[in-house]
Design brief:
This is DUF1376 domain-containing protein. The protein is mainly α. The protein has helices at about 15-20, 25-40, 50-55, 60-70, 85-155, 190-200, 210-220, 230-245, 255-270, 285-295; strands spanning about 45, 75-80, 80-85. Helix 3 packs across helix 4, helix 5 crosses helix 8 (about 230-245) and helix 6 packs across helix 8 (about 230-245). The longest helix is centred in the middle third of the chain and has 72 residues, at about 85-155.
Length: about 300
């Protein structure tokens, strides 16, 4: 017998009522005691005393009980043993049901474990793919940021046509610049550096007074944008600011057209009877100043 189903026995009420309809209450109780013993221990010896011990009846009553149970289809007496085809069928059915449920539970667990394994593998593959993608993009992005930062400094020194609000917008890549950045309030340019930028653009140098005056206006304009930029960026913008608000150019070392016209006759004309031109004897200071005034240099 299978011990797994030996501790419980299915009871089909309608089926049992049909079998014990002609039994007395005492016989129904005795029949259940005999069925329970058979379910747990198997075949029962066809011995009246043994049956009496199981059913708690007298030996005299057991003789009549056995025939009643055989007629009800609950037991069969053969070869000195009491057996029950009815209970054997119930036990086989119960065993099969238990095995079927066990197999279903096992298969369900295997499916669940397989799904969990696949989900774990998929998560690991996605994490590995993201890691490789991050490493592949790290170097190009770093190089791009460096190039943009260098280009930003180079463009910072170019003159701007006007100090419009467009200058307040950060250049592309400014957010990625890894060099030290400052706010416009802390920008303190050196006069020499400013003049170097001005001279390289053909503008005349300025003095400290003019620089401080324009620096205050420059900071007031650019403080509207509270974004930090490298100092070279501010230096380029400030130089462009001065050139826009104070357009001027360096004095030319070449004499003006007025001076050339005034002196060309004395320099280029030959004296009569001489093969070489005569030098200028008198310097006309008024003509010199008039020439500078004409060119807007005085």
């Amino acid at each position: 017998m299978n011990s797994d189903v030996g501790i419980w026995m299915p009871l089909y009420i309608g089926d049992m009522l049909a079998k014990v309809t002609r039994l007395t209450t005492e016989q129904v109780g005795a029949a259940n005691l005999l069925m329970w013993d058979y379910w747990r221990n198997g075949s029962i010896p066809d011995d009246n005393q043994t049956v009496a011990n199981i059913t708690r009846l007298s030996v005299a009553k057991v003789k009549g009980l056995k025939q009643v149970l055989v007629n009800a289809g609950l037991f069969v007496i053969a070869d000195g043993m009491i057996t029950s085809t009815y209970l054997d069928d119930l036990k086989t059915q119960a065993t099969d049901n238990k095995a079927s449920k066990s197999d279903k539970a096992k298969k369900a667990a295997e499916v669940r474990w397989e799904n969990e394994r696949k989900a774990k593998e998929l998560a690991e593959q996605q994490a590995l793919h993201e890691h490789h993608s991050s490493n592949a993009n790290a170097m190009p992005e770093h190089m791009q940021n460096e190039c943009l930062g260098i280009a930003q400094d180079m463009l910072g020194g170019c003159p701007s046509p006007s100090p419009s609000s467009n200058n307040n917008n950060p250049p592309q890549g400014a957010s990625a610049d890894t060099r030290e950045k400052i706010l416009v309030d802390t920008f303190a340019p050196n006069l020499a550096d400013v003049n170097v930028r001005l001279k390289s653009s053909g503008h005349k140098e300025i003095d400290a007074t003019l620089m401080l005056k324009e620096l205050a206006r420059f900071k007031d304009e650019y403080s509207k944008n509270s974004i930090a930029y490298p100092e070279n960026w501010y230096l380029g913008r400030f130089s462009s600011w001065i050139m826009t608000n104070h357009p001027s150019r360096q004095p030319s070392s070449k004499p003006s057209r007025a001076i050339q016209a005034k002196t060309s006759g004395a320099v280029n004309q030959n004296w009569p009877g001489h093969d070489t031109p005569q030098p200028i004897q008198d310097f006309d200071e008024e003509a010199w100043q008039a020439g500078f005034a004409e060119d807007g240099l005085l």
